[in-house]
Amino acid sequence: MTAVPATKDAQGSSILLTFLQARTYVALLLVFGYFAIMAPNFLSLANTVIVAKHAALTAFLAIGMTFVIITGGIDLSVGSTVGLTAMVSGWLILHGIDPGLGWSIQFNTVEIALLVMCVGIFVGWINGILITKLNVAPFIATLGTLYIARGAALLSSGGRTFPNLAGNAEYGSDTFPLIGAGTFLGLPVLIWMLIVVGLIAAYIAKRTPLGRHIYAVGGNERGAALSGVKVDRVKLFVYMFSGFCAALVGLIIASQLQAAHPATGETFELNAIAAAVLGGTSLSGGRGKISGTIVGAFVISILADGLVMMGVSSFWQTVIKGLVIVAAVVIDQAQSKLQARVALQQEAATGR
Amino acid sequence: MTEAHPIGLSIRGGVKVYPGTRALKGVDFDLRMGAVNVLVGENGAGKSTLMKLIAGVEEMTEGVITMNGREMHFRDKADAVAAGIGIVFQELNLFPNLSVAENIFIGHERTRAGIDIDTETQREEARKLMERLEQPIAPDTILGTLRIGQQQIVEIAKALALKAKILILDEPTSALSAAEVEVLFRVIDELKAQGVGIVYISHRLEELIRVGDYITVLRDGTITGARSMEGVDIPWIVQAMIGSSSKEYGRTEVTEFGPEIFRAEEITLPRIGGGFTVDHVSLSIRAGEIVGLYGLMGAGRSEFLECVMAQHPHSTGKFWVEGKPLVERDVPGRIARGIALIPEDRKRDGLIQIMAIRENLTLSSLPVFTKLFHLDLKKEAQTARDFIKRLTIKVASPENPVSSLSGGNQQKVVIGKALMTGPKVLLMDEPSRGIDIGAKAEVFRTMRRLAAEGLGILFVTSDLDEVLALSDRIIVMAQGRVTGEFPSGTDAAQVISATTPNAQVSKEAAE
């Protein structure tokens, strides 16, 4: 037990650590490679686009969820918000806003999109107020809004679907279906949206004081507050951002289907949490990356779609998804342990 | 003396290897029963590691532990407890959500038939322990509502409840007031008389000399001195600890103070259940002045600092910074006006443990590196490196989590964070708590230098030597009030007497 094997040991754990840190990417390569070989047509262009579109929906929600989880919270209401915002888009296209004076206000696509986003942000704002000002635990607060938003979605149509959301050229809303189906420079519009939202979120996380504060609040709320971080504002932001992301998904789904059903988005929140966790976000707060989350969302979607293509029974699909999530968390724990050890070794090596 | 104090436990050739470091390099240690065995050394010298081996928390890499001639193998803490070894760790291991009695008996609950917890017996025994430690703490008090000093007393009670034959106290006094330390010493004497072997670790050297019978000095994992306490003095200990005499943090010259930089008037913080935690406190600090705020635990000193840092929305009173009233009601506002607080509890209030050293250093001063909303990471990293160098923080990389640093270096990170905001008034709550003598001296030198640069410093301490050596002016608080104000060079006895202005102290504290 001299210093030499100790150093080797340190090197070994550094290499292992690098591998573990890149595990989400490794997982992505593994599932992608596996299905590319095993599932026919998996690599066809049409299929790739479909998978990417599926993944994008989870990814939007997961990006918002990542910020929330980094602050040490959770947002269970995103799935319902998707449903509610989809219904709002449907309502606005079919009916506009009727002030009850015998005439109604109609909107074009951009206005509809902005209004729907406002609805999502508003749901997030409610969550934020409940959690910061009224001191409700995030789990309970967002569980409450989960039911409220879902109920509101059902009420909006009496439980029925809003059909035929093709829009109306007269009002300038005929471009609505393009949100989900349109392409720009060969890529679907919603992929472009994902790229933009992803880049903005990553930028906020890495290069703005707000991002740093998000991590600080999750790491040690008291310490952050004493350091001058406006904890309430940070929390309010993350829930509003999560609501915004949910609104995007609601908008996209309504546009893709050209119909809005009040059950849209049920259990989406679970996929979003799974994607974030798979991407290395720690549920105890303070740790997580946007890039990891996006990759996590792709892993989950590729897994789901690939299994469908291979004809695996949907019951088994559920089991496999669960196993992957559990494995991800186990590996995550191993990584943080190892990371702490490597850092300690480095500090020890400086001679104290 | 050897006959009077038989060896109860000994370690021969003790080696402990952590991945990458050798914390102990072949240590021979004898623990004598019915005596206080003091263990001293700088942070990272291996004291805590040695104690963890004895307490069964860590397994020895090489070497043997023998008790009464029998070789012992402690695989976990339960083995050591079974052998009659109790330990009070440096870091509190308590449950803030449970009551005092529940904390004391955690892990070895008094039960009926091994299932049903005998709450009555536990409460009764807890009450007796508190009585023995002369603390007016009810057994049903929720631990989290106690001050840190009182929590430490509970931690000690927890070890006493085990009726250990060997009791290890790792820095038991770091958060205790002078009066509480006296009580602890009386309990130690009592235990000694009962033949209990005590290991006592502390950074307060005067304490060691007072309480110790045998001394062992560790340096870099080896023992550099082990002898009976007779004839040992502070210079000898320091010599053995760091190799050369260097305990010097006094003033270099008499400084000229600038104008008044900070003033507090009639600061009042009501206490739940009547009375005041901070009772109409008024004080002022001049630029370049170091003011020591001395007092017993619970005198309201920390709470006063918290009032200044806008932590108590119910407090009343007025503050002035550089003659202008401080009207900002939130922390960022006060930081912007030049107030900086170095909290007492580094782990809980001072640092974000999982964040990098750099991120911790710059957390309060991000606006400096921000244009509109864009964070200039290069400038941030550069400034962080500057501060690491300026405060001589020993780090392998600024990107490592701050939790990987030793206590002294963590404290320097907290100080660095406060300094980066460009404060005019620096509030330091127990700045030397739980850090070794070398780091302490550096912290004190830093304080001196900052004062010379024109900062006003208000620091809270429970260490009399510290307050006498470092302060330009000493303010004493008791029961939430200012009870004395002394220039530097005041006789220690006067300062002490101000901490207990009347005999009602213990009665008031009981309420």
UniProtKB/TrEMBL annotation, chain A:
Membrane topology recorded in Swiss-Prot or TrEMBL: Multi-pass membrane protein
Coiled coil: none
InterPro entries per the UniProt record, alphabetical: ABC_transp_permease
MF-aspect GO terms: transmembrane transporter activity
Pfam families assigned: BPD_transp_2
A Gene Ontology term for the protein's cellular component: plasma membrane
Transmembrane spans: 24-43, 55-74, 109-130, 136-155, 176-205, 236-254, 290-308
Superkingdom of this protein's organism: Bacteria
Major location (coarse): membrane
Keywords: Cell inner membrane, Cell membrane, Membrane, Transmembrane, Transmembrane helix, Transport
Localization (cell): Cell membrane
Name this protein carries in UniProt: Erythritol ABC transporter membrane protein
Annotated organism of origin: Rhodobacter aestuarii
From TrEMBL, chain B:
Keywords tagged on the record: ATP-binding, Cell membrane, Membrane, Nucleotide-binding, Repeat, Sugar transport, Translocase, Transport
Translocase as UniProt keyword: yes
Subcellular location: Cell membrane
Protein name: Erythritol ABC transporter ATP-binding protein
GO cellular-component term (any): plasma membrane
Domain ABC transporter: 9-245, 262-504
PROSITE patterns associated with the record: ABC_TRANSPORTER_1 (PS00211), ABC_TRANSPORTER_2 (PS50893)
Principal localisation: membrane
A GO MF term: ATP binding
InterPro entries, sorted: AAA+_ATPase, ABC_carbohydrate_import_ATPase, ABC_transporter-like_ATP-bd, ABC_transporter-like_CS, P-loop_NTPase
Topology versus the membrane: Peripheral membrane protein
Keyword match Cell membrane: yes
